[in-house]
Specification:
With 256 residues, this protein is mainly alpha-helical. Helix content is 77%, strand content 0%. The chain contains 12 helices and no strands. The two termini are 23 Å apart.
Length: 256
């Protein structure tokens, strides 16, 4: 199964590197978010930012959140790739071989996770150009990198679970909106939890996007030691979604 998963994953990566439009999206999407949304709050007083955000520059607060959001949204491509393989007949050819359905699922999840990770250096570079100063903690950086991999796989699995039994090309986009918008605005990716009403804080405490974002802030912005509890929360999320994804794919994935 490992060799089959790797072969399918390699195909996902090759599709990515051969698409100039995918590369354009990997660069343009975070660039627009950072330049326009990030700078829309550039006028906030430094004292206010220091008190509530823990930074003197909102962009520094936003960069880890933007990376988390990008890794999450790239998960949509796992389900989108699966839908297109169905419509093009490629999945039917794969499933006539001894390849397990779970190998198809894991390769799609790993491919989408790779897309998300490729956005990380782009976002960090844009932040540096715009004046963000990083206070890097090496141990926290290593833990954050592992967390990004787990989160990428977890979100990819989550998207695929909801689209595994459809060949409708519109389904991944619809599911993307239903998942990413609530997770983004109930996390600390863009604003601190102190701004939330109590009921929203409770939701944020169960939001995996909050934990991967805070890992990134510890590693890049605050220079703080690693938070093992945050990593364990992300690992639990990934374990649940991947396990559920394998079960759903094995039960419901069909070539048509």
């Amino acid at each position: 199964m490992i060799s089959q998963t790797y072969a399918l994953y390699k195909r996902e990566v090759l599709k990515l590197f051969r698409s100039k439009y995918m590369w354009l999206m990997l660069v343009a999407q975070p660039l627009m978010w950072i330049v326009f949304f990030g700078n829309s709050l550039a006028g906030l007083p430094r004292g206010f930012l220091a008190q509530y955000f823990g930074v003197e520059n909102y962009l520094a607060y936003m960069i880890p959140g933007m990376i988390s959001i990008s890794v999450m949204t790239m998960g949509m491509f796992a389900s989108m790739s699966l839908v297109f393989d169905k419509r093009l007949g490629y999945l039917k050819r794969v499933l006539t071989t001894p390849t397990p359905k779970s190998a198809v699922f894991l390769a799609k999840a790993a491919g989408a996770m790779t897309r998300g990770l490729l956005m990380v250096p782009v976002i960090l570079a844009v932040g540096a150009v715009l004046g963000v100063g990083y206070r890097v903690n090496p141990a926290s950086m290593a833990m954050w990198a592992l967390g990004l991999v787990l989160a990428g796989l977890g979100f990819s699995a989550l998207f695929t679970i909801f689209t595994v039994n459809t060949s409708d090309v519109h389904a991944p986009g619809v599911i993307n909106n239903f998942i990413t918008m609530p997770l983004m605005f109930t996390s600390t990716a863009l604003f601190p939890k102190e701004f939330f009403p109590q009921w929203l804080r409770v939701i944020s405490d169960f939001n995996p996007l909050t934990y991967i974002t805070e890992l990134g802030r510890n590693a890049l912005v605050y220079g703080m030691p690693p938070d093992i509890k945050a990593l364990l929360a992300i690992a639990a999320f990934a374990a649940v979604t991947i396990t559920a994804g394998v079960a759903v794919v094995e039960a419901k994935l069909e070539a048509d």
